[in-house]
Amino acid sequence: MELIKVFLPLLMKSFKRYLVTSALPYANGPKHIGHLAGAYLPADIYVRYLRANKRDVLFVSGSDEHGAAITMQAIKENTTPREIVDKYHAMLKSNMADLNISFDIYHRTTEPLHHETAQEFFSALNDSGELEIKETEQFYDEESQTFLADRYIMGTCPICANDSAYGDQCEKCGSTLSPDQLINPHSTLSGRTPIKKLTKHWFLPLNKHEAWLRQWILNEHKKDWKTNVLGQCKSWLDAGLQPRAVTRDLDWGVSVPLDEAKGKVLYVWFDAPIGYISATKQWALDNKKDWKPYWHSADTKLIHFIGKDNIVFHSIIFPVMLKLHGNILPDNVPSNEFMNLEGDKMSTSRGWSIEMEDYINDFVKKENGGGMLVDALRYYLTAISPETKDSEFTWKGFQDSVNNELVAIFGNFVNRTFVLMHKLCKGKVPTLHADSLDATDNKVFEEILNTKQKIENLLEQYKFRDALFEVIDLARKGNKYLQEKEPWIVAKKREELQKVSPPAGGGDPIAIGLGASIDNTLHICLQLTANLSIFINPFLPSTAQKMIRLMKVVDKMLEWENAGKPKLLSIGYSLRAPELLFRKIEDEEVMMQVEKLKAAINTLEKNNKVTNMEEPKSEISNLKSEIVYDDFAKLDLKVGTILSAEKVEKADKLLKLEVDLGFEKRIVVSGIALHFKPEEIIGKQVVVVANLTPRKMRGIESNGMILMAEDKEGKLYFVSPEQKIHEGSSVT
Ligand SMILES: [Zn+2]
Description:
Elements: H1 2-11, E1 17-22, H2 33-52, E2 56-63, H3 68-76, H4 81-98, E3 105-108, H5 112-127, E4 132-141, E5 146-147, E6 153-156, E7 165-166, E8 183-187, E9 195-204, H6 210-220, H7 227-239, E10 244-245, E11 247-249, E12 264-266, H8 268-287, H9 292-296, E13 300-307, H10 311-324, E14 335-336, E15 339-341, H11 356-362, H12 371-383, E16 391-393, H13 395-424, H14 439-460, H15 464-485, H16 487-500, H17 509-536, H18 541-550, H19 587-611, H20 629-633, E17 637-647, E18 655-660, E19 665-670, E20 685-689, E21 695-697, E22 700-702, E23 705-706, E24 708-710, E25 716-718, E26 730-731
Parallel strand pairs: 1-2, 1-13, 2-3, 13-14, 15-16
Antiparallel strand pairs: 4-5, 4-9, 6-7, 6-8, 9-10, 11-12, 17-18, 17-20, 17-26, 18-19, 20-23, 21-22, 24-25
Helix pairs in contact: 3-4, 5-8, 6-7, 7-10, 12-13, 13-15, 13-17, 14-15, 14-17, 15-17, 16-17, 17-18
Bound molecules: zinc ion (ZN).
Zinc ion (ZN) binds next to loops.
């Protein structure tokens, strides 16, 4: 045993301090909750967990205030870049604070300290000969007499035919583009077709670094980096890296610190990640600390939380910069995939998104103590976190997840415990009668310890979603335990016994036994509640605060070293009266949001119709992004026959169907009640997505999904085989 204790820390690489970064958002507009789910919320959960573990951790981010995205927005809003960044930096900073993202510093890249830091970084690389100077042809607008950033060139996307694609990206289909690929390119400044003109720029020769990148990423981090990150890195490396321009011709950004480079600025991809370093420096200045160990000491664990569009910058390009500059490399780059919204890609410019600002105004600020609604969003976004593949936010899913999991499992357990403790134990933590503990009681203590271990392992691997499910599962076990022990029934029995033989002298031994059982059950439920508050704290900090207030304990109890302990609350200690931790999300709230989305998309379509009078919108633009055959092959589509159908109580749109799939009969809940009467569809053959994760709808577990075709008017039709065939036949 002793040997293991001594050697374990040597086996696990141990770090003295943690530096956690979240991608710098562009301060060119509001940011949506997909960004929150991608790079800010997971980082915040991780950081809160580390802090609860008393580790030395610094959490930095800030607004990315340079680049053409900013100057473009200034043109759009008819103002200056400075006003744009001031406006949106303030918005983003307060949004993050409102959603309890606990940065140690949220900095900005227009600060002089950042400009100095980025210039010093450039000079260091340039002086040591790590940069190359090249003359290249760039797009130039003769009328405006200026070189054009990729963003300033618009044209038709060669992939999806969107006629307002930018020179660097098509926001409609998400393709990365170069201005050369655009059909009919034109300058957004003058509307003219740009010409090409020679200009001198500094390049980072990424191609020189392929060998060590390959070794470092694909070998050394083969096991601990996420497969989506490794996959993207591998395809970039396999395709061969190209020298990348570090400087550009633009009048907004960090000036290149060389006399021969007048009018040129650092490319925003180069200056932005250096923002993490300048943020660290500013934090150190503000707190009288030394910033250097965070970026120079090998015992610092550097972790970049990002969305998938940022993988190449944080796992290939920035590491090259860091290495050349003598800094440490990231230990991990836990990138998330994208979160879609109600079946489509989230996009602020298209109006198909939920801005953090809007959620805060529509939910958080409308309610006294809006912390519960912050936690409701944090809960759902974590529960559907796009950790390994794209995921989907739906308002109905938000409502179901909050009402059926957070309220019905976690909130319910804590509330029942408090209500029963007040009813049966005078509002005090009852004694634990160790001699009367049974196997069910002891099992709860075991489960608490197991949960602790599981959460720790999952969080260390950045699996936030699974870790959260462990917390909910523990609460579910608490409910089951209460249900098995039924202390309210035991209390009734005791009452009846006491009526027959009043508690004189030592009292009735059976009644005493029953009393001990009630005490033990509630004692255990309360210790479980205390543990739940520690476990939920990194995910839902407001909820944890509410819980410790109810238990009348101090913040210190939430420290992770207390997790798993069986005696967090002292016997005889009186606790506050029960209060609900959460409230349900109502149908009307969800409906309002869905209407809002529909309105946004209608306005957009109307606008499109006006601008695209001559060119009717191509049908192809309704397609989702391309998938490979393997994506399709993941679907298990089976033919089934509807055996029975009935309406679901209090749900206008839902039918509960029993479907015969040949190999088994399934219950499937389908949102078709407004289109079909139950009796009409019995005996009908349908196609079922048979390997869909079961999902609870209105308390009924739905095991699969029925495929429907929807016409322009929104009328639904079953997708069925042309003639009756065997149940269980595959659709391929
Ligand atoms: Zn496109």
